[in-house]
Specification:
By secondary structure, the chain is an alpha/beta fold. Helix content is 40%, strand content 17%. It has a domain of 222 residues: NAD(P)-binding Rossmann-like Domain (Rossmann fold). It is built from 11 helices and 13 strands. The strands form 4 sheets. It has a 7-stranded parallel sheet with strand order 3-2-1-4-5-6-11, with helices on both faces. The two termini are 33 Å apart. Bound molecules: uridine-5'-diphosphate-4-deoxy-4-fluoro-alpha-D-galactose. The site of uridine-5'-diphosphate-4-deoxy-4-fluoro-alpha-D-galactose has 21 residues, from helix 7 and strand 8.
Amino acid sequence: MRVLVTGGAGYIGSHTVLALLERGDDVIVVDNFANSSPVSLERVARIAGRAPQVHRLDVADAAALDAVFAAERPEAVIHFAGLKAVGESVAEPLRYYSENLGTTFALLAAMQRHGVRTLVFSSSATVYGDHQPVPYREDGGLLDASNPYGQTKVMIERILEDVAQADPQWRIALLRYFNPIGAHESGLIGEDPRGIPNNLAPYVAQVAVGRLAEVGVFGDDYPTADGTGERDYIHVVDLAAGHVAALEHLRTRDGIRAWNLGTGRGTSVLELIAAFEKASGRPIPRRILPRRGGDLAQTWADTARAESELGWRAQRDIVDMAADSWRWQSANPQGYDSE
Ligand code: UFG
């Protein structure tokens, strides 16, 4: 299949591009490299033994995107491109709404013009807001989010519902990711956040490698077993396989549907730090800090729908995730800039 991937040089995008190349798909990447490095795609090509077509452009640039669709003739699209930092979205809501919605409108218009009606969209568990009990189920009710980044995911899901309602030719998968961590087992590609990481796993990895001094643990007074927040961490290679499974499933399913991509298990902040200590063989200094505003005590996925309908389930556990993150981080202490 010819698959166009927006944001294909990013963390989840690059692992998904690799999975598609490895199963024989032709992959067309569209990326402006605003928050990613082209080196990731060179590494993907090294691992796969074949390369994606790469177009450096902004998805919101309608004329340039049109030219790519005309030249490359994709049959399906996976849409990763977008801004994703929760705190930044609170500070700069207009930028988040205009970029995340604007790129999606431009993409949908191009797909419509070129008769492409199969779309896999990068959504997030953040759409469950703080109203629903764990484990989160796809049909759990009203979607909501506590920050502008999350609201863009809720809004895009709703827009896509309307698009699918209006034209039954659309086939759309909404993939709600839990907390992606880990890296490809080669250690050649992985997460490479710009600046100080916002998320726990890259932060811990950078402490282990000596780039940062200590991890701040945001609260140890939650109603959880050890008092720290619990999340459903999912290995990025499993997540990439979830996209391939969704794309396959869309061959036989019309309309729109959401699937959770998680493991169904919660891991605490202290458990994750312990897993990285074991993987790296190094002590990881930590300090207990007050809770971070907007954080929930516990989130994890109900994975039954993805298992029964997509035939997909996560294969890798926290030990694998920490080992693979560490292999990437220790071989590339400055991320892709290490080259
Ligand atoms: N945490 C720390 N110290 C840190 C960073 C995080 O203790 O330096 C804790 C948090 O309080 C939380 C856990 O580690 O308990 C995970 O935090 P992350 O920031 O890694 O991830 P979140 O669950 O807050 O958010 C992630 C993504 C969002 C997405 C959300 C969906 O960053 O984009 O999952 O559930 F919306």
